[in-house]
Amino acid sequence: MKVKATNQYKKLNVEDKELKRIPKEGEVFEVTEERFKVLSGDNKYKAVFIKAVKETTSPTKADTTQRKAKSTK
User: Fold this and answer.
1) Domain total for the chain?
2) Partner residues linked to 29 by β-bridges
């Protein structure tokens, strides 16, 4: 799951255990479901260190071709 770091890492001067450094605010990285729960507030600091990043998929060429064909009819 992709997440984005909040300013809490820097504010609390906390190093991410998996990254082995303090991520910058807005930095995107991957975490497991279990790690997501911990970084979302289930930690000794009771702080939210990350936000979930919505993964968007771009339309395929076939999708856009079908839409164009429908709109010209």
Assistant:
1) 1
2) 3
User: Does the residue 70 lie in any domain?
Assistant: no
Picking from 6, 10, 15, 17, the residue whose alpha carbon sits closest to that of residue 41 is 6
- Flag whether 73 is in a domain: no
Give the confidence band of 55 by pLDDT, cuts at 50, 70, 90.
Answer: confident
What is the torsion angle, in degrees rounded to the nearest 10, for the CA atoms of residue 38, residue 23, residue 5 and residue 19? Answer: -40
Give the global pTM: 0.72
20-54 pLDDT, tens per residue? 999 999 999 999 999 999 999 999 999 999 999 98
Interior/surface letters 21-48, b for 16+ CB within 10 angstroms, e for the rest: eebeeebeeebeeebeeebbeeeeeeee
